[in-house]
Every structure is written in C-alpha cells, then in structure tokens.
Design brief:
Keywords: Membrane, Transmembrane, Transmembrane helix. The chain is mostly helical and 39 residues long. Helices cover 64% and strands 10% of the residues. The chain contains one helix and two strands. A two-stranded antiparallel ribbon has the order 1-2. The longest helix has 25 residues.
C-alpha cells in the first residue's frame, strides 16, 4: 500500500492486513459520524 512516496507494509502477514482493513473501516465510520455531528 502506498501513500505518495511512503510505502506501508502490513505487519504480521494476513492477520495484519485484515487488522489494517478493519482499522480503516472503523476510522472512516468514526470520521463520518463526527462530520455529521459537526455539520
């Protein structure tokens, strides 16, 4: 996974990749809820 010139490698193989996906899902949900509360 690359963000600009920074490369992120999932830790722990498949489990780490799954955790990264879960974390990004939770983060997007939390951000959406926060934005809805603010606006």
């Amino acid at each position: 996974m690359r963000f600009g010139n920074v490369e992120i490698r999932p830790l722990g193989g498949g489990v780490g990749c799954l955790l990264m996906i879960l974390f990004s899902l939770v983060a997007s949900i939390v951000l959406t809820v926060l934005l809805n509360l603010v606006f």
